[in-house]
Design brief:
Elements (H helix, E strand, L loop, with lengths): L3 E8 L13 E8 L4 E5 L6 H9 L6 E6 L2 E2 L5 H4 L1 E4 L11 H11 L4 H14 L15 H13 L6 E5 L7 H18 L2 E6 L2 H7 L2 E6 L2 E6 L1 H6 L4 H6 L6 E4 L1 E9 L2 E9 L6 E5 L4 E3 L6 E2 L1 E7 L3 E8 L2 E8 L10 E4 L5 E4 L2 E2 L4 E2 L9
Parallel strand pairs: 3-8, 3-9, 6-7, 7-8
Antiparallel strand pairs: 1-2, 1-4, 4-5, 9-10, 11-14, 12-13, 13-23, 14-21, 15-20, 16-20, 17-18, 18-19, 21-22
Helix pairs in contact: 3-4, 3-5
InterPro entries: AAA+_ATPase, ABC_transporter-like_ATP-bd, ABC_transpr_FbpC, ABC_transpr_MalK/UgpC-like, Mo/tungstate-bd_C_term_dom, NA-bd_OB-fold, OB_MalK-like, P-loop_NTPase
Keywords: ATP-binding, Cell membrane, Membrane, Nucleotide-binding, Transport
Family: Belongs to the ABC transporter superfamily.
Length: 368
């Protein structure tokens, strides 16, 4: 197992990059803790797989260094880095049995036969293939082959890290949940450093201790699922995490008030004067119906009942705004205002979250 340090790292696929726009992976300086489980999350083309391939040794970065612990491994190949990698599409040996495929990394290292047999049996049970150990891999379904690939990646206990590149793409939805649960259990038991690339926020948030959100070749936030939800450091994080994502509204912020299309929205903190494109962001979970003169005027477009709650779709000043309401809550026919929880409103300047100078004190409740 290893702490992974990305030191002044950047990569371009062009031979002579001239500007930042020529870099698929823009400068990164991060330390990823030994034994932690990370998810690399972002849309297609954001740089996730490029970063994973640099960590694994399949790609040498244009700039910077990769350290495993105190050792510089930038020029080392995958074997020298002592890692296991599971790819998006299954890589198995069709002429071997399921058991032989799982045992292959251990036999290559001349492990004790008794240990190999026990380890293969344990991993086979974890991926639900203990009854198929003597079956040839040829002719198995794509999801069965991917389970073998996952198992082979996890069979070794002595690796520095296990890297997963969208490993559940071809797995059916129910099995995805089971395998994610098993991967988490494996991590808790053996403490491998794990990095899991995905564009699926559910996979990322349920698997990882910390999620690394990437956008346009940058890491825009590294944090726990709770931190990504409560305080997105970039508007992309707010938009990408959550269903629906964060509401973003153009604003002019003065002190503890945001002025949006002629309406004042109270904030949970005081802010300095801001330059650039200023927006406020709030999760639909913290938007509620208002009455009288409270909140902002909206036009309600529709209400979607998704079982556990309702999603209210509305417009404010010609832009969409969403609210999540309790299941079964009645929405009056004349409802036309929404209000925001001030302490849950984030402020952004040029897409990056601004920290308030200080919080606005909440009046104490009167004694009953």
């Amino acid at each position: 197992m290893a702490q992974i340090t990305l030191d002044n790292l950047a990569h371009s696929y062009l031979p002579n990059p001239k500007g930042e726009e020529d870099f698929a992976l823009k400068q990164l300086d991060h330390v990823w803790g030994d034994g932690e489980a990370y998810a690399l999350l972002g849309a297609s083309g954001c740089g996730k797989s490029t970063l994973l391939n640099i960590i694994s040794g399949l790609l040498v970065p244009s700039r910077g260094r990769i350290l495993f612990g105190d050792q510089d491994v930038t020029q080392q190949d995958t074997v020298a880095r002592n890692i296991a990698q599971v790819f998006q599409f299954p890589v198995v040996y069709d002429t071997m049995t399921v058991g032989e495929n799982l045992a292959f990394p251990l036999r290559n290292r001349r492990m004790d036969p008794g240990y190999i047999a026990a380890r293969v049996q344990k991993i086979a049970a974890m991926i639900g293939m203990e009854d198929s150990l003597k079956r040839k891999a040829r002719g198995l379904t794509a999801d069965a082959k991917q389970k073998i690939s996952l198992g082979r990646g996890m069979v070794r206990e002595d690796v520095n890290a296990i890297l997963f590149d969208e490993p559940l793409t071809v797995i059916d939805p129910h099995m995805k949940w089971e395998l994610r649960t098993q991967l988490k259990a494996l991590h808790n038991e053996f403490g491998h450093t794990m990095i899991y690339v995905t564009h699926d926020q559910t996979e990322a948030l349920t698997f990882a201790d910390k999620v690394v959100v990437m956008h346009d070749g940058r890491v825009v936030q590294l944090g726990t699922p709770e931190e990504l939800f409560d305080t997105p450091e970039h508007t992309f994080v707010g938009y990408f995490i959550g269903s629906p994502g964060m509401n973003l509204i153009e604003a002019e912020v003065k002190g503890n008030v945001a002025h949006c299309a002629g309406h004042a929205i109270p904030l949970g903190g005081n802010y300095k004067a801001l330059k650039g494109r200023v927006q406020i962001g709030i999760r639909p979970e913290f938007v509620t119906l208002a009455s009288g003169d409270e909140g902002i005027p909206v036009t309600i477009k529709r209400i979607e009942d998704v079982g556990r709650h309702q999603i209210l779709r509305a417009e404010f000043a010609g832009k969409p705004v969403n609210a999540i309401l309790p299941e079964g809550m009645a929405v009056p026919a004349d409802a036309n205002r929404l209000k925001f929880m001030p302490e849950r409103v984030n402020v952004y300047a040029d897409d990056w979250r601004v920290t308030p100078l200080h919080s606005v004190a909440t009046p104490a409740r009167e004694a009953v």
